[in-house]
Amino acid sequence: MKMKAIIEEVIVQPDKIQPIIVDFQIGKLKDDEVKSMSCGLFRDQTRDKTVLALSNGRIVYKGYEPDPEKESVRTMLVLHNKKTGKVRLIEAERWQVTPVLDKPVIEDSRHNVDEKIVMLNKQFGSKKVKRRTEQFEKMKVDVDAVKDQLEKAVLNVEIDKMDLSNQLPANESAEAALLPPCNRDATNVKDVYNVYDIIPRSKLETLYEHAMEVLNGNVEGKSKFFKHTLRSIQSDLDNANKIALLLYIEMINAWFVMPLRDAKKRDVVVCQVSEEVNQYIIDTYSVASANGRSRPNTMKDKGLIHCMILALTVSNFMLDLDSFREMLGIRTSLKKLTDLAKIIGATASKEDKKVMVLKVPLPKPVSLVRKGKRKGKSDSQMLI
């Protein structure tokens, strides 16, 4: 059907944000998915370009502003007034977006390329390619499983303490046991700690489905700290990952709150949504003994340190210790948390001493061992 119309106005405003037509590199957006998409325009300081970001809650897409000088034609939107028969032409821009396969949080780059290929094969490959990808993954060695097996194998190995007397000072050996790897030479605060050294990425991803339920409003029974932090990251492009980290903090806390008689049971449950995470927490924050699992003070310190590092990462590297302390089920003094925060490398804010900030360059390392007062012989004690 042909229609005649008079062009009333042509609107071209290159100095303003134009209407944007989005082209997805790997397909088209279904009509029923449009309402679930959220989007925003941001400025990429490193490339000095405007970037468009879209998310459906599971996948993030991004694309950069096209260069108008490289476009051979203009894309125009036609608005037709059926009553007057006149039309308006409005210039629009065509942006192409692609899925973001790597997460903003620091990731282990050793297998980055392989993992991207696997993800693409699973989502967009043919049936044959998907089948081969699944077979390939089954053949891979699970490094974390091998590590856990080795740790269990050496639990009962007796070591003569005299053999270690000349190897490591007390504070260095304690630091290695409680702190995850720390890049003290980092120039970006995001590079100081890698959250996947605390919980492997493959295990954290098993919490994503529950994280999306929380994002959609399922916050029953959550602490004030959890709800406050959740509100602050609602619009974050990586909110699913950060909520999963919050859930992991909550589960570590649940493990230490659990009565000892329950913690020694074989079928103990601290994480109902992931068996992998459940077993990982038990293995990481307890010690096996003849009478079952025990949780010495050193394990509690380790758990607190890990929780604080994750909380700092989620909260943009600023943590209110008062709010964090209220969330903990175990009795912990504010001074104890402050001491542990200093060991991590955080410093008190100038405005509020109860707010700890992680920033670079890091201050000089603080010893995990506190020297006691001299009473004849010098002694030292662990932070407990």
Automatic annotation (TrEMBL):
<dbReference type="InterPro" id="IPR009668">
    <property type="entry name" value="RNA_pol-assoc_fac_A49-like"/>
</dbReference>
<keyword id="KW-0539">Nucleus</keyword>
<keyword id="KW-0240">DNA-directed RNA polymerase</keyword>
<dbReference type="GO" id="GO:0006351">
    <property type="term" value="P:DNA-templated transcription"/>
</dbReference>
<dbReference type="Pfam" id="PF06870">
    <property type="entry name" value="RNA_pol_I_A49"/>
</dbReference>
<comment type="similarity">
    <text>Belongs to the eukaryotic RPA49/POLR1E RNA polymerase subunit family.</text>
</comment>
<protein>
    <submittedName>
        <fullName>DNA-directed RNA polymerase I subunit RPA49</fullName>
    </submittedName>
</protein>
<keyword id="KW-0804">Transcription</keyword>
<dbReference type="GO" id="GO:0005730">
    <property type="term" value="C:nucleolus"/>
</dbReference>
<dbReference type="GO" id="GO:0000428">
    <property type="term" value="C:DNA-directed RNA polymerase complex"/>
</dbReference>
<dbReference type="GO" id="GO:0003677">
    <property type="term" value="F:DNA binding"/>
</dbReference>
